[in-house]
Amino acid sequence: MRGDTLLLGTRKGLLIYERKGSDWRLARVAHSGTPVAYAAVDPRNGAMWACLDHGHWGQKLSRSRDRGATWEELAAPRYPDGSEISDGFPVPGTERPRKPATLRYLWVFQEGGRDEPGRVYLGTEPGGLFVSNDDGASFELVRGLWDHPSRLVAWSGGGRDHPGIHSIVVDPRDSRHVLVAISSAGVFETRDGGATWHPRNLGTTVDYSPTPDVEVGQDVHCLVACPAAPDRLWQQNHFGIWRSDDGAANWIKVSQPEGPARFGFPIAVDERDPRTAWVVPAKSDQDRAAFGERLTVCRTTDAGATWTPLRAGFPDEPTFDIVYRHALDLAGSRLALGSTTGNVYWSDDRGDSWRALSHHLPPVYSVRFA
Question: Does a structural domain hold residue 333?
Fold first, then answer.
């Protein structure tokens, strides 16, 4: 059942854990020594996908069809000749220098809809969305998004040098309806399978900007939707937590002004209850460490009106963990998270209490149940 296998993308490879009774055991290590930026299972066919950030050979894409026992390397997507990106931060009225677009990072893999058995997406830096309709045999750049008039003038890097597509949400009701989140540009939506795209950032703000409510230029850290109610979306943003009740047409800020549920990277939403979500707070942009020097998960059960800090099972002594945007996941009542200091925790009771899986792992980039 989903939730009995845990994929950890780490600085030193992909660690595959399996649930045995009331505990977990390390079943397999794949891509040992190579940073794995993201790993997940395609639930349509059971294939494992891994995005590798090889320091010498660059970005690699790998897939396993036997639960990680063997892997095949797939050709990573390539930007078409002549593709360009803008360099530096956008300044109104100023044209930024341009340079050739090359693949810098594979941020995320996302399978297509159930009615699209061969479709998979890859979100990349510098801001390209790639799609395959033959299960990864070939990829092409989604030109509708890449050619959006805002890209060269308003998109910029958010924590990295260039824009990154790190979140892809496919509507389970309509596979042609897809939303992506870009740091830093914001949320974009297509309803025609990627031919045309529109920004969906009304209500979000860039607090340090003289024009905080710009249509494009918002810094989303993570975007998720409730599978049972896809019009309820949540985003952990650089400047707080936002919720949408109308499919991203409008956003409502639901974070705590004084924290802890405010700044952070990951967010998870309950699969059936759209009112319930979890975040892992950090102090601030300037101080990226655990809020109050205590590892904390915050949960809301009332759509963000209130947030409850959950700390049972986490260390009482000062900790400085940070949890990246893909390093929190949910399967039923089970949650798991991993930190950049190699600590991995799991919960069987929706976050009420936590147990350590390990304190001795490499920095964790992604955590996904399978």
Answer: yes
